[in-house]
Amino acid sequence: MHFTTADLSDGYPESVHVLEPLFRDYGASDHFSGPVETVQVFEDNALVRRTLEGKGDGRVLVVDGGGSLRCALVGGRLAQLARSNGWSGLLINGCVRDLVELARTPIGIRALNATPVRSSKEGKGSVGLALRFAGVVILPGQMLYADQDGTLLADRPLI
Fold first, then answer.
1. What is the pLDDT of residue 58?
2. What distance in Å separates the CA atoms of residue 122 and residue 51, rounded to the nearest whole number?
3. pLDDT in tens, the chain (159 residues)
4. Whole-angstrom Cα distance, residue 132 to residue 3?
5. Could you give all domains of the chain from N- to C-terminal order, each with its CATH number?
6. DSSP conformational letter for 119
7. In angstroms, rounded to a whole number, what is the distance separating the alpha carbons of residues 97 and 135?
8. In sequence order, which residues have a C-beta less than 8 Å from that of residue 30 and are 6 or more positions away?
9. Cβ-contact 143, 154 below 8 angstroms
10. In this structure, are residues 16 and 152 in contact, taking their beta carbons and an 8 Å threshold?
């Protein structure tokens, strides 16, 4: 499916919510879209893993890590797991690691930054909540569109 976020923003100005430009591209694909699934965690990626172990069906996993820059919530193994299970992308309000591996994995990955430190594995967090970061409210089931120009959300498919 071909789109540009600029065209979607121009064509549907009342229907899109544009995320603040806080995120860097880390995956091999800088162009991805899909229905949103949400996870909220803090410096613990066990629930992220558990979610990515399920079928992605072209969805985008949006992870609210509270904006923590102290540890990575996704690395090479989780990126490959996401790709293998059919997720189209990951948007992480936090950090990633294993940048060489991420750059080779054909999936969209956006995060605030990178750090070599791994997260805890306690399994704390929630799935399926409304999240608030980057100037928007992100709801499960919304459509996320991302490309080199930015990231936006819509309440319904636009293409």
1. 98
2. 14
3. 799 999 999 999 999 999 999 999 999 999 999 999 999 999 999 999 999 999 999 999 999 999 999 999 999 999 999 999 999 999 999 999 999 999 999 999 999 999 999 999 999 999 999 999 999 999 999 999 999 999 999 999 999
4. 25
5. 5-154 (3.50.30.40)
6. P
7. 25
8. 108, 146, 147, 148
9. yes
10. yes
For 106-136, letters b (16+ CB in 10 Å) and e give ebbbbbbebbeeebeeeeebebeeebebbeb
The answer to whether 56 and 86 have CB atoms below 8 angstroms apart is: yes
User: Strand runs (DSSP E) across the chain, as ranges?
Assistant: 16-18, 24-25, 32-40, 60-64, 72-74, 89-96, 108-114, 126-127, 131-133, 136-138, 143-147, 150-154
Q: Is 86 left (phi over 0), alpha (psi -120 to 50) or beta?
A: left
Q: Mapping DSSP to helix (H, G, I), strand (E, B) and coil, where does residue 23 land?
A: coil
Tokens of 71: 């540890």
Geometric angle at alpha carbon 78, from 76 and 79, rounded to 5°: 65
Residue 142, CB-side half-sphere exposure with 13 Å CA sphere: 23
